[in-house]
C-alpha cells in the first residue's frame, strides 16, 4: 500500500511540475541576469561550450529564454567533438541544432584547434582559451558570457577547462566590465529528477538569492534540438534528456573573479 501512495505522489508532483512549465513558468532572471538598461537587441550574449550538443543537453532553458526575449546570441564551441572521429558530422549537427534553437548560424563558431581536442585526459591550455575568448568578445562586442561552472555538470575535464579559461579571461580583462554567469552543477538526485527540480531550484534560490533560476517554457524545443545530434542520439541520451533537470531548468550563478 505504501508503494502505491509513493507512486501516486510522484506522479502528482511530476504532473504539477509540467503544469508549472506549460502554464505558469516564470524566470527570476527577467529582473537580474542581463538587465543593465540596454535594448535586448543590442545585448550580445556568448555561450562558451566545449562540444557540440552541450548547448542542447545543458543550456537550452537559458537559450530558449534569451531567444524568446530577442537577445543577440553567439555560441563559441571550442571543439568539434572529434573523440570518436566524427568531428565533421557533429559540427554539422550543431548547425542544425542551432537552427532549431534560433541561434543565427553566422553567430556560431566551432573550433578545430590541434591543442583543443575532445576527450578525457585532453588538457586545454587556459591561456590559449583566454586568447580565443578575448578575440571573440572583442569581435562581437560581447557584454555577457554564459558557460560551465568549475565542475562542468558532468565533471568532464574539457568542461572544467572552459570554465577556467573564462575565469582567466575575466581576471585579465577586469577593466572591460563583462558579466559572466556559470551553469550550476547539481547533485545526482537533483540532476535526474526532471521537471520536479523546478521546485527544488526555487527553494534553493531562496537560500542563495544571487542565483538565477530560468525555467524552460519550451522543453519540446530542447528535445528537438538534441535530436539533431543524430550521432549522439542513442537510447541513454534520450533518457538523459527526458529525466535531466537541465532540460527543464537552469540555475545560473554570477562569476566574480
Give an overview in words.
- With 257 residues, the protein is α/β, with parallel strands linked by helices.
- It has one domain: Rossmann fold.
- It has 11 helices and 7 strands.
- A 7-stranded mixed β-sheet has the order 3-2-1-4-5-7-6, with helices on both faces.
- Helix 4 packs antiparallel against helix 10 (219-227) and helix 5 crosses helix 7.
- The longest helix is centred in the N-terminal third of the chain and has 23 residues, at 2-24.
- Its EC number is 3.5.1.89.
- Residues 1-19 form the signal peptide.
- Belongs to the PIGL family.
- Keywords: Signal.
- It comes from Camelina sativa (False flax).
Descriptive terms for the model:
N-acetylglucosaminylphosphatidylinositol deacetylase; 7 strands; GlcNAc_PI_deacetylase-related; Rossmann fold; 257 residues; single chain; signal; alpha/beta; 11 helices
- The general outline is globular
Helical coverage, percent range: 40-55%
> What is the subunit arrangement here?
single chain
Output the CATH topology: Rossmann fold
Q: Distance N terminus to C terminus?
A: 53 Å
Enzyme class: hydrolase
Organism: Camelina sativa
EC number: 3.5.1.89
Keywords: Signal
What is the fold's blueprint, element by element?
Layout: H1 2-24, E1 44-49, H2 54-57, H3 60-68, E2 72-77, H4 87-101, E3 108-110, H5 126-140, E4 144-148, H6 152-155, H7 157-172, E5 179-183, H8 188-191, H9 197-207, E6 212-215, H10 219-227, H11 235-243, E7 249-254
Parallel strand pairs: 1-2, 1-4, 2-3, 4-5
Antiparallel strand pairs: 5-7, 6-7
Helix pairs in contact: 4-10, 5-7
